[in-house]
Every structure is written in C-alpha cells, then in structure tokens.
Amino acid sequence: MLKKINRHDLFFTAYIIFLFGVLINSTKYNFVPIALKISHVIQLIGCFIAIIKIILDVYEIYLRRKEARIDYKYLLFFVISVITIIISKSKTVAYFDIFVLASKDINFKRILKVTLYTLIGVFIYTVISYFCGLIVDVIVYRGEEARHSFGWTSPNQLMIVIFEIICIYLYLRKDKLKWFDFVIPLVVLVISYYFTGSRMCLLATILLLILYALVRYTNIHKLFNKIKVLFYAVPIILTCLILGLTIAYKYYDLTKVDQYLTGRLLFGSKAIDDYGIQPFGKEIVFTGQRAEGEQPELSYNYVDSSYLKILINYGPFILIGVLVFLILLTRYAFNKKDYYLLVTILVIELYCFMDSFLFCIEFNPFLLLLWNIIYPLKRKKTKIEIREIKSH
Length: 392
What we know:
Elements: H1 7-24, H2 33-63, H3 72-88, H4 91-102, H5 108-131, E1 140-142, E2 145-147, H6 155-173, H7 179-196, H8 199-217, H9 221-226, H10 228-249, H11 255-260, H12 264-275, H13 306-335, H14 339-351, H15 370-374, H16 379-391
C-alpha cells in the first residue's frame, strides 16, 4: 500500500497547500479573524501531508537496511531537524525543516515552477480582493509620498513578492533568455515602484537584471571564478556588518547612517535591548506597518534585516546553520557552473541585509536546494533506484 503512494504528488500537494496558507497570512486577510484561523489550518494541513511524505522516505530507508544502502545523511539531517524544532519551539524553523526533509528526491525546477504559479495566483487574488473591498490597503507615507500595499501587509511585502516572481522567472528561463525577458520585468518593476516606493527592491531587481544580462551575453563568469572567495564571504560579511552597526548604534552617533537604512539600526538595537540574544532564540511577534486606524495602540517595532532577525528570533546556532547553507549553496553553483543561480543567491543575500525573507521558504524557495547539494553526483542514480523499488 505504501509503495503505491506517489511521493512526488504527495510533496507538491503539501507544498501548494502550505504556500497558499502562508502567503495568505502575508496579506491583510491576516486581520480578518476567521481568515487568519483558516490560513493557519491550511498551513498545518500542508505540513501534515509533508510529514507523511517524510515518513514514506524513512520507511524506504528502513526497507533498504538489508541491502547496505541506508541513507545516513538523510537520517542525520532528520535527527538534527527534530532536535532544532523541539529546542527552538519555532514554527518557522519547523516549516523549514519539514519541507526541506520532504523535498528529498523532488525535482528542484518543478518546485520553482509550482512556487512561481502559486505566487502569481495569490498575488492576483490579493489585488482583486483589495479592489473588491474585501481587504484594506496599507498606506505608508514618506514625506508627502503615499506608498501602497494593495492588500499585502506592507508596500515592501508586495515588492518582495514581485521580486521573487521575477527571480524565479529569470532563473527558469536562464539560457533561453531573450531581450523581452529583461524588458517585461523592468516595466513591471517601474510600475510597482511608482505605487510602493520600495527603493531596496528596485535596486535589488535592477542589479539582478544586470547580472543576468552579463552572464547571458558576456564572459563575466571568468571574473566570478577569480573572486570566488568573495562570493563565499558575502553572507558572513553582511551578518558582521549589520550586527556591528546595530551594536555600535548604542555607543556612537550613527543617525545619518541609520537614515540611509531607514531606521533599521534603531529598531534592531531596540530589539536586542528588549529581547536579548538567546542560544536557541525566542519566538517574538514583531509589530509591522498597519492600515490607518488599525490597532493604534501598537507602535511600529520590526527587525527588517534577515541576519539580525534570525539571530534574535532563532538564535546563533540557527544563524550559523543558515550561513553555512548559503556558503554550500554558493559552492554548489560554482561546481555546477550555474552562474545564474550564483548571481540569484548573491542578490538575495544582499537584499536580505535590508529585508527579512531569507529564512522563509515561501519567498526563498532556493532553500529547498539542500538535497541537490548533499547528493550532487547521485541524482540520476536515485531516480533509477526509485523506479526499481516501484517495479518490485
């Protein structure tokens, strides 16, 4: 009975359900009580189905025990995942571990396609919901400039979704890229920026388009290979930089620097003072931007930088784990000569210096590349072995 279950279909069923639930939670539906509860239930259903996929994978390993083909790497990560979930008591860590474990033997490009279609679907649904009056707009003023979210929790959140859609689209196209593949995202970006005013997303996406064009039409990969060490060091440098600036903010006048970082040092320093840094983190509900008149008793208190937020919310051990994974992902891109993946990871790392989606699989599906890194030379063998198991 267990062998007849298609584990690939099981994973994508779980993944689509989970993505829908967690993305809806990033819209203003999260302030509709019944919708918020439903989104949480949807996420749990997705996780439950993913756990079934994991159980089937572990059962397969059990069946192979007599053939001396036990997958110790998978079992080791399984044990580490269970321990981190129990110790951190964090839903985000649990979601990450569950879906990384469940993504074993799943084609990564197919994961990206499913993520892309789901992001586009939820994006359209959210904007239509806003124009139909089902959810509200969050309007943030920068001087006299009004920045709109069109139903997402903030203008920046809207732009993160657009950035990720462009990221995935470009990566899936990569060697087939034509001139219109650069023009269309640029037009979408300019229109989106006009309404949201999200400068960081504008700069990150333009950088991504430039790097993709250079990889597509020049030999810039030769330069990349010469400065390989720098690519490995980027996440570590960014972590040290944001942490150093945040700590220094308490002792030195960095007001002008913080103006360019739009208050990130102020709120980061405040979060460290209020919550401290625990070995395994502390689940903190930060207060983001609100629609006019919505919960006026709450003041804005949000850590935007991914590196600092991971440190405060999940602790130094999880942060070190994420940094190691980013370095391994960069190494994987170099080994595969996948320079499109290399520049994609680079831009995401830079963007996440200012935004907090680095550790969210719904906005950063490249985290699900873990098994491609662990089994770089066994991908085809694994598929053949799966066919053999099914035939028996």
